[in-house]
Design brief:
- 36% of the residues lie in helices and 27% in strands.
- It has one domain: Sandwich (Jelly Rolls), CATH 2.60.120.10.
- It is globular and about 55 Å long.
- By secondary structure, it is of the alpha+beta class.
- Strands 1, 2, 3, 4, 5, 6 and 7 form a 7-stranded antiparallel beta sheet that branches.
Length: 185
């Protein structure tokens, strides 16, 4: 098991100025295309969290109500296989984001995130996103489009990797699943 003990989480005031944080957010794919007012709303909603190396941000199966943008540090995204063995999926660094799936599908966390190098993260909750929807629907739509773009990019990468693994093992039927669809009569 990768996670030991309780996470060291420090919530405190933002260490950067509003303008510095806005400049950082503009460079991330998650907040690209937002106008100044939309960025101001996001910056006002963000909560800064600090995590020490070796601590989890969250674990697979946890209830999720927020996503994170990495301001500093490095995290490792893992998922437990059927055997219980942790599979390392990918590493994320400054400007990357994670946890966004729970903002859309309202399901348990599909993977665990472990801090590899001390990290400073910006957290945005589902309630923050709902508030953005109520106050600035254009910015809300832009954020959702950015989430969808990133999810599509990650899905494409996963499909490519599955194809590589299937090809290496000679398994041409990896993704073929037969299903029975019941029709109403």
């Amino acid at each position: 098991m990768l996670f030991v003990g309780f996470p060291t989480i420090l919530h405190h005031a933002m260490t950067g100025t509003r303008e510095t944080i806005k400049e950082f957010l503009i460079r991330t794919p998650f907040f690209g295309g937002l106008d100044d007012d939309g960025l101001d709303r996001i910056v006002a909603a963000l909560r800064e969290c600090a995590f020490k190396a070796g601590t989890p941000v969250f674990k697979q199966g946890d209830t999720g109500r927020s996503m994170y943008v990495i301001a500093e540090g490095e995290v490792l995204v893992c998922r437990a296989g059927e055997s219980g063995h942790q599979v390392k999926l990918f590493r994320l660094h400054e400007g990357d984001f994670f946890g966004e799936t729970t903002l859309i599908e309202m399901q348990a966390r599909p993977y665990s995130v472990l801090v590899v190098r001390d990290a400073r993260l910006y957290e945005l909750t589902n309630m923050d996103l709902y508030r953005l929807y109520r106050e600035d629907v254009r910015s809300y739509v832009m954020v959702l489009q950015n989430i969808n773009r990133e999810l599509c990019r990650r899905l494409r990468m996963a499909d490519t990797r599955i194809t590589e693994i299937a090809s290496e093992s000679g398994d041409e039927a990896t993704q073929i699943v037969t299903s029975v669809v019941k029709r109403r009569t």
